Amino acid sequence: MALLTSEDLKNINRQLEEADSAVRRVTGLDIKEVCRALYGTSPSCEKIGIVPVTSGNGIIGNFSASLHAITQYFGFESFVTDMPDVSGYYEAVKKGAEIILMADDHTFLAHNLKNGKIANNQPCTGIIYAEIASRHLKADSKDVLVIGLGKVGFPGAAHFANKGFNVYGYDADKVLLEKAVSNLGIIPFTPSSPRKFSMIFEATPCANTIPEFVISKNCVISTPGIPCAISDELRKKYDVEIVMEPLGIGTVSMLYSVL
Ligand code: NAD
Ligand code: 2YH
Predict the structure, then answer these.
(1) CA 218 to ligand 2 centroid distance, Å
(2) Domain membership flag for residue 1
């Protein structure tokens, strides 16, 4: 399980602004507008309680503060509890939180206490990054390449398949690739039959996972995966538009999904 670091979350507001601009260039919509279109929901002054959690590897410096900045950026009212864990949960509810945001090493959840809806960060992240790529205004076909078919990538691939895209997929783990082929009907991507894509979705914890031969000029790479999936050199060479941000896009997807 890859854990975020406080280094990943540095300058989160600037990272959000840059991601929002990239999403606008790719889709013509900002991140909130993509969420509204995806889930058919809009916020109405819900108050969010952010609860730090000490279990496992413990508090990540900047995590709760980043969630605070992210929720404010997207126009939600939010606060971080003084206490962590169960005491923090109690404090959040007592102070009027309607939505709880909290994460341990395995699960990052949003729970709407008013309507009972609950969201998990991994599928919500996969779905929103897939939705962004699927809206690429200059896509040259309905072909998309998905690299990484784990807890984020599989729901992303499923979202493309549900939207009628031709999904080519690859995972270093053959069992996961087989599962995506049989459950989603995706086409296994093999380097022995190379081709180029104008939409690529990447969700792995590794760098340089996207080979040069799949990258077309002006393609979009929508990638929640940390670290970045391509080098700066390839990015410049092919004028690639990258949508990549460590926490905020997935979080706002979770929030809109529980409204
Ligand atoms: P996971 O371990 O469930 O899945 C990762 C998959 O990538 C695995 O199936 C693995 O076999 C595959 N993989 C690894 N190296 C590969 C390679 N070179 N080529 C092809 N496949 C390869 O992890 P996950 O929970 O799906 O998370 C994926 C990434 O997304 C991680 O870096 C995680 O930190 C990140 N993440 C980011 C956000 C965000 O908001 N940006 C949110 C959640 C997760
Ligand atoms: O980063 C994580 C895990 N990768 C789970 C998220 C799933 N994408 N968890 C964050 C842990 C936060 C910590 N407990 C805190 O500061 O509250």
Answers:
(1) 34
(2) no
83 with 161, same domain: the answer is no
- Indicate if the pLDDT at residue 1 is higher than 80: no
* Residue 251 CA, closest ligand 1 atom number: 40
Question: Regarding beta strands 77-80 and 241-243, do their DSSP bridges make them parallel or antiparallel, or are they unpaired?
Answer: unpaired
Could you read off the pLDDT of 19-67 as tens digits, one per residue?
999 999 999 999 999 999 999 999 999 999 999 999 999 999 999 999 9
Expressed as residue numbers, the domain containing 188 is: 123-245
Assigned domain for 54 exists:
yes
Using CB atoms within 10 Å of the CB of residue 212, give its burial: 0 to 12 exposed, 13 to 18 middle, 19+ buried: middle
Binding pocket residue ranges, ligand 1, CB within 6 Å? 2, 121-122, 125, 147-153, 170-173, 176, 203-206, 209, 224-226, 246-247, 249-250
Which pTM does this prediction carry? 0.98
* One domain for residues 83 and 142: no
Contact at 8 Å (CB) between 206 and 230?
A: no
* Least confident residue range of 1-15, 91-105, 165-179: 1-15
